[in-house]
């Protein structure tokens, strides 16, 4: 069934239907465009959201970057950014495959429809023109026929009139004959026009208009099929990216499963472990036994309460057994005025009831500044320094090692770049057509400056790093003189006279423990020699200065940290950079 047969008389309906069909296509294109704008805005907002929360990965410089929860959050943000990219792809495909394609196809349909309507209008105008000619010939035939009848009646009346002359009768007959002839011609013309109109009308209703209607039907069917394809594309466009969107969602799920609470806990410990020991108990000081101790900055004294302990020395960091923690004179009772002796038969002093050496060590711990003054001190934000002195020893050692590794990596890059520029310069010198060697001078100069700067920084941090370890180790000991003075005071007190049997010889037992601690300080046999290739100031603690060409004895070889322990002929020992010296005969 087609429109030409079934709707041969519904030209206006067909015209209106095809127009409404094209308007539906326009409406759908507009709908898809608005959907595209929504997708674009949605993707843009997701992009902005991802950009807002996508903290740049700073690696070792970012404390939180090692937490699995932090990394998973970055993964979630990145997956969301990829998800936004898929929404953008949906918008782009909708615009290209539906909006642009349908708009172009719609314009073609409009032009084709317009052409068919023009053909129908032309055929209709031709038929109307033929009909006008038919109507004109018909009216002429009617007029001439009536005139011929009137003339014939007049001629017949004149012929019967007795008073009419023969001439009048002949004239009337001739006039009637002429009118009859004209009427016959009009009749023939009318018949011809009628035949022509009938033929054209048949052609119009059975050939021309059905053909045009069928063409419009085909146009409308193609429009419907194209619109149906647009509907399908509307769904397929999003379905095609669903696997990738699914991967984005799977990535977010994987990021959640990758969070490791135990690992994050270990990272917190590793990043913030100070290396300090917990403060010991505050000892009871019995002033009733005759010990008069003066409260000072180096003595804890008798705390009045928790706030007295937490509030003490807020602005200072104290290091247990550090060099600065020498016993001040105010912490030791004067030797010229020992405490009054106890009664002869009285009980012994509680300080020396069991072991005087243990009590002495406790008294030393009491008089040394505590390592951590308070938790409030830990919460403060100290001034960040280049050598990380604001950090606890453990963290400082790690940061110095990280800094040194970073400088070495940068220096290696500069060295590689310098080698590449040198090779390029050699190629330019051998083949001038490939480039001008002078054009590389500025880059080579800049690279050389960077190498010098990084080398200086590496040397600086190589000097700082062993001094930190050395000073930390030295902080674990206190001086023999302070111990000797304190022990001699306690041993010379009358309270210790009754317990001579339990007191070892001061020259042996008292110093035995501390002699063990200082065994490493004794001179050890050198394992070889080395010659200084460059001068080294040795300004940092634990290092030793040297002059170019000076021969030194190697006491401890490089353990992999870039430092060698050496000794001069005068007995001075310290660390020097391994790269500044050249091992000579006899050195390992």
UniProtKB/TrEMBL annotation:
Residues 290-301 have a biased composition (Polar residues). Residues 525-586 form the SH3 domain. It holds the Pfam family SH3_1. It comes from the Eukaryota. InterPro entries: AH/BAR_dom_sf, F_BAR_dom, FCH_dom, HR1_CIP4_FNBP1L, HR1_rho-bd, HR1_TOCA, SH3-like_dom_sf, SH3_domain. It is found in: Cell membrane; Cytoplasm, Cell cortex; Cytoplasm, Cytoskeleton; Lysosome. Residues 390-467 form the REM-1 domain. Keywords: Cell membrane, Coiled coil, Cytoplasm, Cytoskeleton, Endocytosis, Lipid-binding, Lysosome, Membrane, SH3 domain. One of its GO terms (biological process) is endocytosis. GO terms for cellular component: cell cortex; cytoskeleton; lysosome; plasma membrane. Residues 106-175 form a coiled coil. The keyword Cytoplasm applies. The keyword tRNA processing does not apply. GO terms for molecular function: lipid binding. Residues 331-350 have a biased composition (Pro residues). Residues 1-264 form the F-BAR domain. Residues 290-309, 329-357 are annotated as: Disordered. Belongs to the FNBP1 family. PANTHER family: CDC42-INTERACTING PROTEIN 4, FCH AND DOUBLE SH3 DOMAINS PROTEIN. This is Thyroid hormone receptor interactor 10a.
